[in-house]
Amino acid sequence: MIFQSFNQTEKKLLLAFLSALLCYWLFFAPGTCSASGTYTITEAELNQLQTNLDKLEQISITQQQELGRLKTTLETSKQESVMLKNQLTISKEQLAQAQNSLDKANQLLKQYADEEKKKRLKIKAQRNLWIGIAVTTLTVAIIYHSHR
Q: How many CA atoms lie within 13 A of 72 on its CB side?
């Protein structure tokens, strides 16, 4: 039906226009059907107009109900949107805290790795020193025993 494609405002305007047109026809239109200058509407035409008005009223009621349902859905959606925004904010804060903790852990791990590297280098230097001392001592001992 053509009326289903109209929104609520358009339907109300159409209903008002049809009502005004009916009033015009009944009261102000020049008389073409009788010699007295008044327009006579047949019962069939009146019934058709009433049927059309009833249909428009029913469409208006249906649209009002649908509008109410859509308003309720919109309110629910708004509330859910606010709730999701709050959850998103909390999640962002938790993510920032987790990232901060991860950064601190990485920094501590890097410090530990640097300290361990220093220890290994120190141990390696000590080993090389002792090897040098041992080689020097052995060389001196060999040279001393060979000259005797």
A: 6
Number of structural domains in the chain: 1
d(C-alpha 45, C-alpha 42), whole Å? 5
Q: Are 73 and 59 in contact (CB under 8 A)?
A: no
CA distance readout (Å), 92 to 37, 85, 88, 124: 79, 10, 6, 47
The conformation of residue 38, written as its DSSP 8-state character, comes to -
Write out the residue range of the structural domain in which residue 65 sits: 2-146
pLDDT along the chain (148 residues), means of 10: 70 79 72 60 89 92 94 96 97 97 96 95 95 93 86
Which residues make Cβ contacts (< 8 Å) with residue 102, sequence separation at least 6? Answer: none
* 3-state DSSP assignment of residue 27: helix
Predicted TM-score (pTM) of the model is: 0.46
CB contact at 8 A, 60 and 11: yes
Residues 6 or more apart whose CB falls under 8 angstroms from that of 14 comprise 3, 6, 56
Tokens (6 digits) for 93: 């804060």
